[in-house]
Structure formats: C-alpha cells, structure tokens
Amino acid sequence: MNPPPPDKSPKLRSRDWFGKRDRWGLAHRAWLRAEGFSEGVFDGKPVIGVCNSWSELNNCNAHLRTVAEAVKRGVWEAGGFPLEFNTISLGEMLMKPTAMLYRNLMAMEVEECIRANPLDGVVLLCGCDKTTPAQLMGAASVDVPAIMVPGGPMLRGMWHDRELGFGTDVRKMWEEVRAGRLGQEEWCEIESCVARSTGHCAVMGTASTMASLAEGLGMTLPGAADIPAADSRRMMIAEESGKRIVAMAREGLRPSHIMTSAALENATRLLMALGGSTNAIVHLVAIAGRLGINLPLSSFDEVASTTPFIANVKPSGKFLMEEFSYAGGVPAVLKEISPLLHLDALTANGKTLGENLKPAACFNRELIRPLSDPLFPQGGVVVLYGNLAPLGAVIKQSAVSPHLMKHRGRAVVFQNNQDLLARLDDPSLPVDENSVMVLKNAGPKGAPGMPEWGHLPIPAKLSKAGVKDMVRLSDARISGTSFGTIVVHIAPEAAVGGPLAIVQDGDEIELDVPARRLELRVPDWEIKSRLSQWQAPAPHYTRGYGRLFLDHVLQANEGCDFDFLRGADREDDGTPLERYPNPAL
User: Fold this and answer.
1) How far apart are CA 417 and CA 439, in angstroms?
2) 320 vs 48, 171, 193, 315, CA distance in Å?
3) What is d(CA 111, CA 89) in angstroms, rounded to the nearest whole number?
4) What does the domain layout of the chain look like in residue ranges?
5) Alpha carbons 330 and 555: distance in angstroms, whole number
6) 297-304 helix and 279-290 helix, angle to the nearest 10 degrees
C-alpha cells in the first residue's frame, strides 16, 4: 500500500507531551525548563530531534558535534525547538569483529528513540559506513519526518607528491610492503599523512556510497552527500537542513513519502553509475524491507545492465571524493543519468528530483563522464547465481581484472578467517595465480556479523612474484574501498549449510561475470552427498545481543536485517501506527 500524501497541517506529536494543561503537561514542560529553556519553546514550535552518532571512537563521525550545532541554528531560525540526543556510533575501523554486527542494533535504537520521545521531526547525523543505513532503517520504521545530514569525506591524503585515499591506497601499499617493495620507513610516513582530517574515507567506499544513495533516495538536501567534512559548506548545508526539517514537520512529509519504490530504483541506478560499494546492496534491501517494499537481488542486475558506470573515483577509478565534489558531485552524476531516473520522485526539500537537478552541472569531464562516453557500459556492481550461490552473490565488475572476467581454477579453501591468517603466507601453501581462493564461515551467522574479510590478500609467495589479482570468493563482505576480482555475499552462507560449506581443496570453480554465473564444477550427486554429511558449527553467542542476532538475522540476499523488523507499522489507511500514543502512560 502506498502511503497517503503529506498532510499539509498535521497534528504535532509533541503537543501530546507539552500542549496539555494537566499534571502530565506540567511535568513534561518543567523537566525541560530545568535545563534552562523558557516557556516560549512550548508555544507550538515543532520539536526537532537531532540524532547524533558522534563518537571519539569513530573518526568518521568525530566532528558531528559541530555539525549538530549548525543544525540547531537552522532549527531555531525556522521557529523550531531542537533537542539533540546520541545513539551508538558504528565505527568500521575499530569495532570488532565488525560494525555490521551492530547495524541492526543502531537501527532499533534510532527507531525507538524517535518513537518514544516528543519529536515532530528528526535530523539524522551520519558518517561512517553503517551509521547511514542504520539511521535510514530506523527512520523508515518509525516514519516521523526526517532529513539526513552526512558528515562528508575526509580531505585527501598526501604522501610526497602522491594523493592517497584511505582504504584503497593503504591496501595497495600493504601488498607492496608484503612483497618487499616498500620499506618500513615509508610505511611509517604513510601512516602520518594518509588520514589528515575527520570525515569518512576519501574514496567511493561504503560511507561515500551510502551518503550518495541517501541523496539519491531524496533524504538529504541536494549536494549534501559529498562536501568534504572540513569544508565550511558542510556547516552551511547542515544549517539549511535544520531549517528544512521544521517545514517538513509542519507539512507532514515523512520518509515513506520519499523512500518509495521509484526512489529506491533511482538510488540503485546511482549506485551503478558511481561504481559504488557492494555493501550498498545489502543496505538498500534492508531499507526497502523496513518500508514493506520487495527489492530482490535480481532487480540490481536488471538496473546494472542498463546503467553505465561514469564516476571516475577510486577504487574503480582514478580520483578521490574531494575532487569528485569539486567536479559537481552527486547532483552532476544524477543529472547525467537523468534519462534513466524517475524525475517525479519527491525529495526532502519538497521538490521533485527533476526540479532539484535543473541547476546541477559537471565541471570535470575526466571525472564525471557523459552518459554517451562511460567508463564502463554497465553498472559497477552485479549479481551472480549458480549452484555455489543459489540465492545470489555479488561482485564489483568495475574493479575486476579483465583477464579474470571468465575464469576456471582449483579451489584453495580456508575454513574461517583464523585459518586464512594462519596459512596465507606459508610457502608450502598449494596455490598459484590460477587458483580460486575460498573463505568459508564469514557470513552473518558464521563470522559472526558478516565482516569485511572478503578481500583475501594475495599469498606472499605470489605477491612477491608480481601477482596483483586472483579470483577470491566468500560469504563475507568487502570494504567499499576494496578492489580486484572478489565475489562476496554468497547466499546461503556456509554456516547455515549453503553449498559453500562443502567446497574442498582442488574442486574446480568457474566464474563467468558476463554470464552472471558462479559454479562449483562437482557432480550434483556429490554435492548432495557432501551436504548430507555437513554439521552446523557451534553458535558464537548464547546470550545477549549476540544471541538475538544469531536467532533472527536474515541472509545477505534479504539485507541481513532481523526477521521481526521487516515491514512497516501502518494503520489501514497507510499512516504510521503510533505504538506509544499516550505519553501520560
């Protein structure tokens, strides 16, 4: 069911807390007046929550306290009443085994913080990879007016005369260290200059991709995704977003009005044009699930086949996010692919996508290519199927080595990440450049949390011999900063008895990217026999959030959300179901 159109004069939720002249109304007002607010803030102003994922444990989001102040300026200017609150902050770099384990926890926290409090609208402050989808998932579920302000990419790193993008270039240089071609002194120099400001990774990794897709979905103001974190315009657009959310609250413009099926298709096309992160597929499927929209893996491949890749940004291209922003950024890419988009899709500023794109322009054709002259004729991320991935797998074809687009090789199998780390550089490892490296038990339940372990390093003996790429596959994820011929998100995963679980050393595996196939060249009867003898591994957790995760997480092809969170709470007419209607209770 499509949501009803926005109500131009909706009742403000906050009035149930602050608008009554009874005992509870007095108590609610008095509790905030204890913080020093005057009675004037309760005169019917929309109450705006500023949902902040700031944390000193998360450099991507470490500047969001300053961004929040800019947002609050805008809310006050527009006649609203801003109240900031914090949630868990998911930092991909420090959290182990992976921030992905906690994405659903953050989404639940965002949803319940909004639902339980007297908020008429919310500004979502995000940055690092999982904070963006978590906030969008939570906002989709509670369906209170919301707008997103991404934190922006960090400034480009500089080493000698070389520009560096954290993630992609660090991975490449680490391979040079392992091969003995880069010394420890140079490695130490790189550490001091590769990340020189707050903000998320400076390449088209997951953080940049998801911020871009939030804009493509219509959940940000135009141009909000790619302004560098250290740029003063980041504060300006935060202030403007604060102004706009007050109007959205008064208009009743909710996430369900913006994040429609058409908007999800627009975001998917943007993903393909950007050559964005494979992780975006998992996140978009999860967001769609919260909205009650079916978004099968097959739809991504359909869009990829008709959407050229045009953004020349690492890891699939040459440039960094800072240059991408100066070249016109997300608006310029959207305008270039506009013939493929639903231009009537509504966005957070109350205008259609088409209206927003009229002033957009490209200022660097080497960086953002014309639709008629793309970097690659199809989208960057495609879906594979076959007897090794019955429910699908994902590969970034824009980063695949041309000679490996079609490949057959013998499997070299690692049972888990510990096994990989223990044996990878063993000189006796039976591996050559034609081998297919296979990592098991790295998926949602098997790892747990589906970490970014899928970028299996090239074995040391091959790296030293000059091998730059090999076919690697797993049920894990990879960082959006990764590159190479890497198949990930294999579903079902090994830990639940998917065919990946029974792959053995020496089995022949065939990868055919153009045909979208991933096949285990073993007779069907042998596969069935091996599966009949397979035994499930012991669970990683028996209590707490970990137990909840293992009991309810879905597979990668369904977005790795919890089974009990899919679908939106709606009344019969499509309006949000208010589960806590009476604050006096």
Assistant:
1) 7
2) 34, 15, 15, 9
3) 15
4) 18-155+197-258, 381-533
5) 30
6) 120
3-state secondary structure 272-303: HHHCCCCHHHHHHHHHHHHCCCCCCHHHHHHH
The token duo for 531 is: 């599966």
Which CATH superfamily includes the segment(s) 18-155+197-258?
Flavodoxin domain (3.40.50.360)
Torsions phi, psi for 310 (to 5 deg): -125, -5
Contact 139, 145 (CB under 8 A): no
pLDDT in tens, 467-486: 999 999 999 999 877 789 99
Task: Locate 236 and state its tokens.
Answer: 């300006």
| 456 burial type by CB count under 10 A (0-12 exposed, 13-18 middle, 19+ buried) | buried
Bridge-partner residues for 376, per DSSP?
Answer: 309
- Identify the CATH assignment for 381-533 out of 3.40.350.10, 3.50.30.80, 3.30.460.80, 3.40.50.300: 3.50.30.80
Q: Note the pTM of the prediction, 2 decimals.
A: 0.93
**Residue 495 near residue 460 (C-beta atoms within 8 A):** no
Cis peptide before 374 (omega within 30 of 0): no
Beta bridge partners of 386: 389
- The three-class DSSP label of residue 101 is helix
393-418 tens-digit pLDDT: 999 988 899 999 999 999 999 999 99
d(CA 197, CA 178): 27
Helix H segments across 38-84? 64-77
Tokens of 118: 């007297």
CA dist 89 and 105 (Å) reads 11
